[in-house]
Amino acid sequence: MPTPPPSSGGPSGIGMGGASQIGVGAASGGATPFQVGGNVPTQGTAEESRMQSARVFAIILAAMAMVFLAVLGAVGILWWKWSEDQKAPEVAVAAPMVTPKAEAPEVEETYEAPPPPKPVAKKSSGGGGGGSPPPSRPSATGTVNITFTGSPIPSSVEIDCGSAFREKKTLSGGSAIFSGVPTSGDCKAIPKGGVVGSKAPVRGGGSYTCSIQGTTTVCK
Known about the structure:
By secondary structure, the chain is an alpha+beta fold. The chain has two helices and nine strands; from the N terminus they run H-H-E-E-E-E-E-E-E-E-E.
């Protein structure tokens, strides 16, 4: 019988066994040519995290302190200004008092007629005894009673007779009485005191009722 060829179990076995052993060794954590020795470093430690958190807290606390100091300073400035305003005294300004002017009372003007001129005696050129002419008699006078009716009524009235007579009187109850007014001549009654009226003719010894119509004085 022919002899069987030698078996390849030895070398192949050794190779397979070595390969399997090498693989198993690598898988079981054994030393390999590609393995890095030592521990793999991490991203950061817990202590560094705590330090970083402390720094953030310190920054936030400092910012809050600055804001608090700013607000406290603003409040202090406002309080100081308010205190200064309260200390300032208020000066009271007294309003000037205006005293009304007192109206001057009306003064009655009285004009007396000048005395008549004294007669001058004429000297006679002849031998006969010529006497001086008799003195001239003064013109007759009388009383004038004036009463104003209607509206408006003046506060006073004046009678003007030129150089012979002139007098002004205040009306009492709308009436006034004048004495010594010539009975002849050019005499006028003139209303005065807050009204505008024309002159009206009057004579001594007469009694007149007058009224102001527009700007015309009518006496009857």
